[in-house]
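Inverse folding, one chain.
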């Protein structure tokens, strides 16, 4: 049996006990939930939203007696999709007595819902013309019925919430239900695209306008990452050694990039060994090789002025309007001015506290830097 396994996870949400440095955020989120306030949580992709939400659900269940449900709305595109996701989320998260009650409530609605295998998804497959709307109404109504059947308070988390923006009228439908549920349920709306989240929550004529307290997840602190990385090395009989500092510098507090680099480094260091600068360089190179297709695909998705703006940003160390860079890239200030908000709307870049911008993913920034170097003076 293999028992010397890499302790760093970077390709899926981490378990609640592996979440680094998010105690305050979990507390704030649960405080709002218990106080009956809805929350909209924003963070760029791979900043640990789902990990944090899973941890908040666990803690909410343990310490506040909340019944938690996490609904993944990634790429939903129809009312039927949302209905299926919601039903499956209840099926996945509920246990014991609550589950029994919810199943009974669903059966009674007579619209084809069930937490078992033969629920609404199976029925929609058999009969694609079936109208999913009654089932969706019944699911959105569940918190009220659940409370009436025994005083359960629900914490319902919609992950990748921005994707409902594609479905006409869904935010209005949602609002018509949740506005009456302040006493019985709390809602968290998490999303990774600031542009779309703003559209849903900060546009005056949208149904959810101003309806949720904003929260955002930032980068992780170097000190917390250092403790986590060296702790995990030590617990698996290794020392992270002098490789730690360059790792922290390269990760710049980006949660997933930090774990990816730590994973690669750990693979280089055998049992009883200690990380060296050489190990770090090899680990870093391996990580960049692994990311090549991902970054290349991302790059191809940008239009020319977005690509050039990113390059100008790296050349200007955060200021995209430097004359030399603009000339070299044959880029106009006007094109930069138009590209910046588009890149910010998808959280590819963010404003720096001291002014200027930063590429959110430090390894993308490095990759763009290499592109600049490779392109040489003639670019
Ligand atoms: N607080 C944290 N502690 C340790 N690792 C973290 C933390 N947050 C994020 N990570 C790392 O980031 C990766 C992605 O986490 P997660 O899936 O929770 O992020 P996400 O924001 O939901 O991502 P996506 O945008 O892909 O849905 C994890 O595999 C882990 O390596
Ligand atoms: Mg996620």
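Residues assigned per position:
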């Amino acid at each position: 049996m293999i028992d010397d396994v890499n302790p760093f996870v970077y390709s899926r949400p981490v378990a609640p006990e592996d979440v680094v440095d998010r105690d305050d955020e979990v507390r704030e989120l649960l405080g709002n939930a218990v106080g009956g306030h809805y929350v909209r949580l924003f963070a760029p992709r791979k900043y640990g939203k789902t990990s944090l939400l899973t941890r908040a659900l666990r803690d909410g269940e343990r310490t506040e007696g909340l019944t938690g449900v996490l609904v993944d709305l990634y790429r939903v595109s129809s009312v039927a999709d949302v209905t299926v996701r919601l039903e499956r989320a209840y099926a996945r998260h509920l246990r014991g007595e609550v589950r029994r009650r919810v199943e009974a409530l669903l059966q009674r609605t007579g619209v084809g819902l069930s937490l078992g295998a033969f629920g609404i998804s199976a029925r929609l497959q058999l009969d694609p013309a079936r109208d999913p709307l009654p089932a969706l109404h019944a699911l959105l109504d569940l918190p009220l019925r659940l409370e009436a059947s025994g005083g359960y308070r629900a914490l319902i988390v919609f992950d990748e919430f921005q994707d409902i923006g594609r479905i006409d009228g869904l935010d209005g439908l949602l609002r018509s239900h949740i506005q009456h549920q302040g006493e019985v349920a709390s809602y968290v709306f998490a999303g990774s695209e600031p542009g779309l989240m703003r559209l849903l929550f900060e546009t005056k004529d949208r149904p959810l306008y101003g309806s949720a307290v904003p929260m955002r997840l930032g980068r992780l602190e170097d000190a917390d990452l250092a403790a986590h990385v060296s702790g995990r090395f030590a617990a698996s009989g290794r020392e992270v050694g002098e490789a730690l500092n360059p790792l922290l510098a390269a990760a710049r507090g980006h949660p997933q990039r930090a774990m990816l680099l730590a994973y690669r480094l750990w693979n280089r260091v055998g049992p009883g060994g200690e990380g060296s600068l050489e190990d770090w360089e090899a680990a870093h190179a391996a990580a960049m090789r692994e990311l090549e297709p991902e970054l290349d695909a991302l790059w191809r998705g940008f239009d020319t002025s977005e690509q050039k703006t990113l390059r100008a940003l790296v050349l200007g160390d955060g200021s995209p309007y430097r004359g030399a860079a603009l000339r070299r890239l044959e880029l106009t200030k006007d094109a930069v001015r138009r590209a910046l908000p588009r890149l910010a709307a998808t959280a590819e870049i963010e404003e720096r506290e001291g002014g200027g911008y930063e590429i959110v993913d430090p390894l993308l920034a490095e990759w763009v830097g290499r592109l600049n170097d490779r392109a040489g003076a003639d670019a």
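The pocket of adenosine-5'-triphosphate (ligand 1) is lined by residues 9-14, 18-22, 43, 45-51, 192, 255-256, 259 (CB under 6 Å). The first strand starts at residue 39 and ends at 42.
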